[in-house]
Design brief:
Largest sheet: 8 strands, mixed
Helix content: 25-40%
Number of strands: 15
Strand content: 15-25%
Strand order of the largest sheet: 3-2-1-4-5-6-14-15
Radius of gyration: 22 Å
Number of helices: 13
Bound molecules: nicotinamide-adenine-dinucleotide
């Protein structure tokens, strides 16, 4: 199969959908890979590195799109890329269709096969292509929080690990899923005193078993949240209710309980946030202050560390790319349900009910669309 890897053109997106190691694997498997010139630069990969492992490099985005039987990307195609898409062409990327009617209708019209990273689902409900970005964001949340706790950055001037004779900082994490667990590991490693709140007791039992002694678990309820945030130097929002907006666990009223110049990093801001006063911010202007509490609300945290994020994402995506390339999307989807669950559109039909529902479009079950 011919696989195309365009340069990402969305603002501030420095990741690339395939590192040279991925190209090397696909070429060894007998495929052709066309990479747009400069596609890897933001993640530290030069055109020469791609060429050395067998990629064809072209300066033309259009050539990559037109020649690729499958296009592998990171972010959704932007309107200027839609004219390059052809019917039946496979596009494998984060689409997040439900967030944009314009994107949904624009891509639907092309008749392509849209396989989305975000809906690839394991039998146990896990989303294997969202996990790596949650791991990155969870770990980054503590790094960013520690930075904004420094006095010159506007914070309380607390060192999370403390020192001999001085108590460590208090980190409170709302939600003990992938983001929360990764944040807890980082905060614990720095020596902070960490509390994770979750509504899922089984999850808290598991965390209590595997986490070091400086991590405590607590049932999430309004009273425990109020008590915990009053002690927090750093509060991390990491809750998720799948398919829904994040629940508002910390109201504006409750924010007044927090210590002056404490820091809130609400990672769940991309789902609306679990702290009422959070709003989305950007890497160039990441923080603002409400009621003397520093708020960090960057919605695409992994974008700050593209080298790590590219490798983390592609570790997870490449096995699917190999399967689709080897067997074609239809056979690959029949052989692997996870690929089937990734298909949101085929032949101008919407095959993911959440997308159809969001915009009142007809829904065709994927099995029917593929004639399975
Ligand atoms: N800002 C970013 O750059 C970025 C990057 C990756 C992920 N995220 C977001 O981070 C959030 C968390 O993602 P995740 O992968 O950790 O999800 P996850 O499903 O692994 O974990 C969510 C946890 O929240 C818990 N929860 C639900 N309701 C709760 C409540 N009322 N109180 C306490 N806990 C509650 C669940 O039991 C679960 O353990 C999501 O909104 C995700 O989209 C943001």
């Amino acid at each position: 199969m011919i696989i195309g890897v365009p340069r990402e053109i969305k603002e501030a997106e420095a990741r690339v959908a395939m590192p040279p190691s991925g190209v090397e694997t696909l070429v060894a498997e007998g495929h052709e890979v066309i990479v747009e010139a400069g596609a890897g630069l933001g993640s530290g990969f030069t055109d020469e590195e791609f060429a050395q492992v067998g990629a064809q490099i072209t300066p033309s985005a259009e050539a990559v799109w037109r020649q690729g039987e499958m296009i592998v990307k990171v972010k959704e195609p932007l309107p200027q890329e839609w004219p390059y898409i052809s019917p039946g062409q496979v596009i494998f990327t984060y689409f997040h269709f439900a967030a944009s009617e314009e994107l949904t209708l624009g891509v639907l019209k092309t008749g392509c096969v849209a396989i989305t990273y975000e809906t690839v689902t394991r039998d146990n409900g896990e989303l294997p292509l969202l996990i790596p970005m949650s791991e990155v964001a969870g770990r980054m949340a503590v790094q960013e929080g520690a930075k904004y706790l420094e006095a010159r950055m506007g914070g309380r001037g607390v060192l999370l690990g403390g020192v001999p004779g001085v108590l460590p900082g208090e980190v409170v994490i709302l939600g003990g899923g992938v983001v929360g667990t990764n944040a807890a590991k980082m905060a614990a490693g720095l020596g902070a005193s960490v509390t994770i709140l979750d509504i899922d007791l089984e999850r808290l039992r598991y965390l209590d078993d595997v986490m070091p002694k400086n991590v405590h678990t607590l049932k999430s309820n309004p009273r425990n949240i109020r008590d915990s945030i009053a002690r927090a130097d750093l509060l991390i929002g990491a809750v998720l209710i799948p398919g829904a907006k994040a629940p508002r666990l910390v109201t504006r009223e409750m924010l007044k309980l927090m210590k002056p110049r404490s820091v809130v990093v609400d990672v769940s801001v991309d789902q609306g946030g679990c702290i009422e006063t959070i709003r989305p911010t950007t890497h160039t202007d990441p923080i603002y202050v409400v009621d003397d509490v520093v708020h960090y609300g960057v919605a695409n945290m992994p974008g700050a560390v593209p080298l790590t994020s590219t490798l983390a994402l592609t570790n997870a995506t490449m096995p699917y790319v190999s399967q689709i390339a080897a067997r074609g999307y239809r056979q690959a989807a029949m052989d692997n349900r996870e690929i089937l669950t990734g298909i949101n559109m085929v032949d101008g039909k919407v095959t993911w009910d959440g997308v159809a529902e969001a915009f009142g479009l007809p829904f065709t079950p994927i099995e029917e669309a593929l004639g399975l």
